[in-house]
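Listing 4. Sequential folding, example run.
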Amino acid sequence: MKRIINRKLLFRSVSAIAIALLLTGIAGCNGLSRNPLNLSETVKPSGAVFVSKQAPVMVSMLVNPNRFEALDGELKLSKLKTSLLANTGLEYKKDVQPWLGSEITLAVTTDDIDRDAINGKQPGYLMSVKTKDAAKSREFIELLFSKRVLAGTSLVVEQYKGVKLISDTPQTASIKKPLAATVVGDNFVLFANDAKILREAVNNVQAPGLSLTSLDKYQQLIKQLGSKTQAVTFLNLPAVAKWQGLKLSSPLSYDAQLISLTKKSPGLLAETSLLANSPLPAAELSEKIAALSYIPATCGFAIAGKHLSNLDNSNLALLWQQTATAISGGSEEGIASQITQPLTNLQKRWGINLKEDIFSWVKGEYAIALLPNTDKTPDWVFVAENSTTPADISHLDEIAARNGLTVSQINLNEQKISAWTQLTTTGNKASNFNIQAKVLGAHTPKDNYEIFTNSIETMDLVLNNKNNLFNDNRSFQKSIAAIPQPNQGYVFIDWTKSQNLIESQLPILKFIEIVGKPFFDRLQSFTISSYDNSDLLKAGIMFLFNE
């Protein structure tokens, strides 16, 4: 029975596919970043002409695959070697590398090859490989299938519309999966898991209107690619839903998604563009978030933007939710709940509902940051532009007082601070009682902002800091220089300082770190931002790596 799901669950399914493909591409291109790249002549995947416009997903690597040999961790096109060369005695460097060109495109072309649900679903897979030597490519195909025949397959050779197709069917346990292949013209070698997929690929390239390149939404998204794009993933969202066996309970908000990877010195920019089915609401974009000037440069995690009251419904939140749900397996929490977890842990002590009593009145700029601490719980800073009335601030003091906290006014370097303290006594005799005050929070106005912290020490650091995130953190400066402006704000994560915190919120990251060890070993920081463009939701993640 087909599952009936909502759009969020489809987004998770798509996200899982996209994030997996993205991490694979990033890991590969991370290794490439140390060496000159052999970029394809065009950033548009030329192998798309063989892919059906009904295909759910297509992935293209637009760099010479041989460059992956430089990557630690033995990526080295392992899937290609394992699936194609198993039990054949052929060698990658000797038999494949000499003719391998500057692009590999892989696609799921259909959710079921024979379109017969009775015998189960068998997706169709197609791989298009550019060749720089057609003669050597043909020699390889002939040699590959002759070795497979010796290992236990039955061979079929046919001519289809002027193209020679070779396919086989396993007859013994030593060869587990069927294979079909052909060389098209002088530029492409095609591999598939069924000869029918190859025949459809030939049809797609010969008949206008059948291939992915004729699809309007593909053309709209592919225009977003820059001149130095190295990897591309295209997702046809309705087709993805069908492929995954999902029955939607409501129409999709987005029709297609494009994910790209671009080398941007000194890191890598991963961008996503989502094509909306209807015009997107206007987003408030900013050239600069001045609230960041109050965030210490030593912070490990920061988020900044405008209209905190609308954060969970923003496009920046949508990208965060896509990433977090794909990695964690599907949290329903919004971004405000996730990123302010250290703050929400204090709500019971304060008796304050963060969303209703604070976030709801933040209509201007805001910045939230976590600072490394020797304790497991980090220090935090919350900066909000004063787009409210004094009554909103005094209301917080009233709530604190109702919950047994003492509101005290103190001077900190001639700056008046409101501190929320918890008074306790020590000693067992009236004459020996000592009163101790523990600060649970503090706030003060500064210029046009209200600043909140978890301690007086943190407040002192904020008010007297000479190095702030916006002007003095080199990782953040490098990241925002590569991210388009204006935008909706930033989520900045210093991986070296926040790894333990992020892993505690998303435990599965520890497993992903093992799989993507070369990537995470060198990861220094990443910055997320959203920058809308007409009917496209556009966002990006800038990754920086340690040298």
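-- end of first protein; second protein begins --
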Amino acid sequence: MYVIRYGRQAVLVDFGSGDVLDHLADFDVDEVTDVLVTHHHRDQVQGLARAGAAGIRIWVPPVERDLIDRVDEHWRTRPLDNDYSVREDRFSLLRQVAVTGTVAEYRTARYGPALVHTLPLPGHTTGSVGYLVESGGRRLAFTGDLIHGEGRVWSMAATQWAYTGHHEHAGLEGAAATVLSCMQLLDHRPDVLLPSHGEPVTDPPRAVARLSARLKELMDSRSRTPWDPESMLRRPWREVTPHLLRNTTSMAYSYALLSDHGTALLLDFGYDLCTGLASGQDRASRRPLLASIEALRRDHGIERVEVAVPTHYHDDHVAGFNLLREVHGTDVWAPSHIAPVLREPERWDLPCLWYDPIPVQRELPLNAPVRWREYEIGVHDLPGHTLYAAAYSFVADGRRVIATGDQQSTAWEPGIQPDLLNFQYRNRFRIDDFTRSAELYRELRPELMISGHWRPREVTDAYLDMLLEEGQRLARLHRELLPRDVDFGAEGVGARIAPYRAVVAAGGKLRLEVEIRNPFPRREAAEVRLALPEGWIAEPDVVRTEVGGHREAVVGFVVRVPGGVARAERQRVAADLTVGPMRFGQQAEALVSVR
């Protein structure tokens, strides 16, 4: 770890055992104001509780905060049986330590007396960062365990973020990220690299060249074609039309619509410069980056990414939205049915939600055009892949384009490759969704279709006919497979509770809304009761209402939690549903934590 001295004060980079606090006089230091952590591994932070006890401010990487100040929960829930997660997330603190906050990636900020630029440096871990500090006319780079010595890494095992699979670079995600991080680090022209293990690196370009060459050789040993990190970092955007670009390095694909005013609108922005997703679903396994934005500025004259819009709420399409807003001032515009999911992810019982709320600066009405710069963009409801999805239609360079997110694969070749109608039941797929989306495409008559995980395709009448036929076949098959007399649709559930996740204090109260469905063709009486933890009370005890045939209704309850209840996580609440003569039982649950 490092001591950066400013007069009689100091800022520390990493903390190790914390024994440095016993030797401050050796450095003529009276006070340590702040600790900057490069990554969560125990050898960096095992003594961090001493810093907190001494009143020192603690700053950590944004992606890895939960592995420091919520690590008790990590240890409690980390799967151990049949475990294919090879990330070194178990090399974490034994007990959590409260932190002051997270460092500001891609930005320069003051931490105590130190002015520090924070640079994302994934490689050794997914969430690692480095710190650039000017000192005595030199630019110092504190690089954690990104690089070791004259061009090695401290651990190859740490760079294996996922179990080796069918993808040719599976298991080498961190190795690839290390090369790309080193390249970006050199762009900042550091004079010396200060690693967490080993001596200072006094010739950064030479050390990086040695390391990159050997890691690239390792990558190529697992690949049919040579891996090209230079192209991946420097040329991420491919032209669809002169004013419409596709980011080929992101997961999922994002698209940039360019204005002649020197600004851009992004369609989706998930995991930029993606070398492969790490195993697990915890926050530290998913890293948003902004590497491709520099290429827009450098190669396409874009001064500002002005707006980002989502085709749907899934993490691989919106993970970078908050970082775009914080670093570049980008506004998020979202269709009116997607905006609530972005703003309050914990309210929704849905898969693939981002971890944090995403503020929306402008809600877009459905089935109405919106103007951005010189473009008029149609915003269209597009349920199918998920209920909360939209298509965008616009003209770019004289061509009619439609952006459809993950609705279908666009890989269709007659007699060779079928098209995938990408329905997922938990995303709230409905039986006729793909028929309706095919009808929308026929109405709009696009010439070009762009999507989240497949290359752009030219749209022909034959392709539109195929989508309609397949949508109709999908609907027919579901109607032939599912019960006729009890119709809960493709989702197969009769109720949902919102919010799905909530927090309430002991002695407090919580309002829950239950959306119910009448599965019968005729109007019926419905009855809803809540199943609660012992001692909890629902007001009213039961709700009775009339619901039209194959219609939905929403009923409300107030849940009271008795005082004196101990802290408890994820207490289960269920909605017990009866419609007409049939009791369907506990159709939906919600999770309530008492804190």
